[in-house]
Amino acid sequence: MKNKSLVSITDYSKNEYLKIISIADEFEKQSVQPIMQGKVVANLFFEPSTRTRLSFESAVNRLGGRVIGFSDTLSSSVTKGETLYDTIKIVSSYCDLIVMRHPLEGSARFASELTTVPLINAGDGANQHPTQTLLDLYSIYKTQGTLENLTVFIVGDLKYGRTVHSLLMALSQFKTTFHFISPDELKMPDEYKFYLHRLGLDYYERKELASGVEKADIIYMTRVQKERFSDPIEYEKTKNAYVLRNKMLAGTKDNLKVLHPLPRVSEIEQDVDLNPKAYYFEQARNGVYVRQAIISAILGLK
Amino acid sequence: MLHKKDKKMEVSAIENGTVIDHIPAKVLFKVIAILGLDHIDKPITFGTNLDSKKLGKKAIIKLSETFFIDKDINKIALVAPQAKLNIIKDYTVVEKKVVEVPDEIIGIAKCVNPKCITNNEKIVTKFQVISKREVQLRCHYCEKITNQENIVII
């Protein structure tokens, strides 16, 4: 994995996912390990994303490295009209690793082919956000003790949600049985269903969340956004159908955990937070360990 | 007066070179652009809006002393998938070829995704061809799929 950029989740193999998970586990036990001394990470955030940026900064700090960069384009030369091409060319001579967030899709692949240093994609528009997927995998592994043969329910916006597509691609390496629960307008795109079909994996599609979750090992909730609907009346009619309430968790498996990439709006009622099956806040904390693992693996320090 | 047979000869024959036939008339100029024919200094004859049973109106290009390697000629398969090539030596057809959509398309088509970096910065586009019969292109950068009906030639 040394010097290997992480742009899309499919850039890494199953074994590489497992390696990241095992290093993340080490960092969870001993988070402060100053193995990055003298190394500089450039955090290039062409659009604001407070949580992702802070989690990368925290990861680098715990590794004893230094962070340079910007958190939005207002404070960078982009406002002067500099191209991404030029910015990347220059910055790659200032650092050992680039972490980049950019609103345009494909920007991360483009940048990774220009830099002389490895690059981690921290989100390129609606396309890819692989570190989120790796932290999801880590969270699932930690709570289930394995990634193999699990039953995973994915709920909400399955059409546009990039985290959902990347998670599907990654989990499909582990013989997962999927249940897709979404309104008609936001169904899982056919290309992903064909992909599962070719791998011989089972999947089920439903419009109702209210019942049938007792088989789940993982419920992965996502936001159903109003602007995704062509008809606002349709949104009003369907939004409540994809809200998880505490009483719906009665009769579910003991090992069930509820995940959510956050931020949540109203799709998980607050009464779920107190249920030990709610795991989304721990999931967010895992982001730091997983990013420590990715950074140290790419820099060849682990 | 010409005989009826002679009247049908709308474009004259060539001694040595390549004839590209069965080009849909409406994409003739795209084919010219893709193959860079506007930069060739050999004699070229174009015919367009010719009657064709298969295509309705077709175009034909006759290029004297010009031959293509498969990699180059296959680029036109995106817009003229039924195009046929006749290689002419000494007024005789010595080889017939059909075009084939290549596995990778570089710099010919535009990505359908307006939020793709290639539509916002000066970048040569690049696609993996994931389906050849009904052409589907996956953008190397944004990973979105451009379908046949949405293909726009740059």
Q: Can you describe what's shown?
A:
- The complex is a heterodimer of chains A (302) and B (154).
- Chain A has helices at residues 14-29, 50-62, 84-91, 107-112, 130-144, 162-171, 190-199, 232-238, 280-298; strands spanning 40-45, 66-70, 97-102, 119-124, 151-155, 177-181, 203-206, 218-221, 257-259.
- In chain A, strand 1 (40-45), helix 2 (50-62) and strand 2 (66-70) form a beta-alpha-beta unit.
- Chain A has 302 residues and is of the alpha/beta class.
- The model of chain A has no long low-confidence stretch (mean pLDDT 94).
- Chain A folds into two domains: 9-128 and 286-298, 3-Layer(aba) Sandwich (Rossmann fold); 131-284, Rossmann fold (3-Layer(aba) Sandwich), CATH 3.40.50.
- In chain A, the strands form two sheets. In chain A, strands 7-6-5-8-9 form a five-stranded parallel sheet, with helices on one face.
- With 154 residues, chain B is mainly beta.
- Chain B has helices at residues 4-7, 28-35, 70-73; strands at 17-24, 44-52, 56-64, 84-89, 92-98, 104-106, 109-110, 126-131, 136-139, 145-147, 152-153.
- The model of chain B has no long low-confidence stretch (mean pLDDT 89).
- Chain B has two domains: 15-98, 2-Layer Sandwich (Alpha-Beta Plaits), CATH 3.30.70.140; 104-153, Aspartate carbamoyltransferase regulatory subunit, C-terminal domain (SH3 type barrels), CATH 2.30.30.20.
- Chain B has three helices and eleven strands; from the N terminus they run H-E-H-E-E-H-E-E-E-E-E-E-E-E.
- In chain B, a hairpin with a 5-residue loop joins strand 9 (136-139) and strand 10 (145-147).
- In chain B, the strands form three sheets. In chain B, strands 2-3-1-4-5 form a five-stranded antiparallel sheet, with no helix packed on it. A four-stranded antiparallel sheet of chain B has the order 6-8-9-10, with no helix packed on it. Chain B has a two-stranded antiparallel sheet with strand order 7-11.
- Classes of the chains: A alpha/beta (302), B mainly beta (154).
- The interface between A and B is medium-sized, with 18 and 17 residues.
